[in-house]
Amino acid sequence: MTAEVVDAGTGFVAVGSIEDMTPGEGRTYVVGGVQIAVFRLGDGSVRATSAQCPHRGGPIADGQIDLDRVMCPLHQYLFAFADGRCTDPSVRSLPVYPARVVDGIIEVAF
Fold first, then answer.
1. Tens-digit pLDDT profile for the chain (110 aa)?
2. pTM for this predicted structure
3. Interatomic CA distance for residues 2 and 13, integer angstroms
4. Taking every annotated instance into account, which residue ranges of this chain make up the domain Rieske (predicted)?
């Protein structure tokens, strides 16, 4: 799915409706030509990261999540939503992006 600019002053772009995502689900969107994984957490909040694991390019949006982390589905590396750090210090951090819901629309700053 491709995003559209919401507010060029803040850098946020709309990626889709929160109603289209089930809690616990991740989806990949294209934002500024870059693939971004967006997750709807169990508490209803949203998080956004790079869509590709920095280890071997695994599809992060397909990973299991909790309120704090996402697990790469290929090699089970865990990455923190807060700062992208991996629990294995030998693996590069996963880029993270600000995400929010405004009037039912998920927005990501890129």
1. 444 444 555 689 999 999 999 999 999 999 888 999 999 999 999 999 999 999 989 999 999 999 999 999 999 999 999 999 999 999 999 999 999 999 999 999 97
2. 0.89
3. 10
4. 13-108
